Amino acid sequence: RSLIYANRQLDAAKVQLAEANALLEAAKPKVIFADAVAASKSSILVGELAKILRQNGVRDMGQKRLFGWLRDNGYLMKTGSSYNMPTQKSMERGLFEIKESTKTEPNGSIRIMRTTKVTGKGQMYFVNLFLNKASDNATA
Asked: Which among 56, 54, 57 has a CA at the least distance from the CA of 65?
């Protein structure tokens, strides 16, 4: 009897292993893409991140709302000359980078412009954050 029981347990374990392997194979392209984005040397604008979130099913998310959410949740500065610049915590986590460029004004003066960009690591972080929130809201 115990041998029959052990064989049934072994057969069940084999079926579970086959199902797990099938799931891993199905997820392989997504994992490769996620690794490529996270390791990417290029970064994107916050507006482009909003479009990515929208494509992934995050409703009511545009550039202005995303900027507001990032400020309200401590990822970007709220006031002063650092408005919409990443907080120190966000920079230490590698979620953002700042691109600086110069513009020559008609009067000959040079103005430094700073643009907040989302790194590959930040893209993965925010997409996962918003998708997990969406699934939490759907189950609640």
From this structure: 54
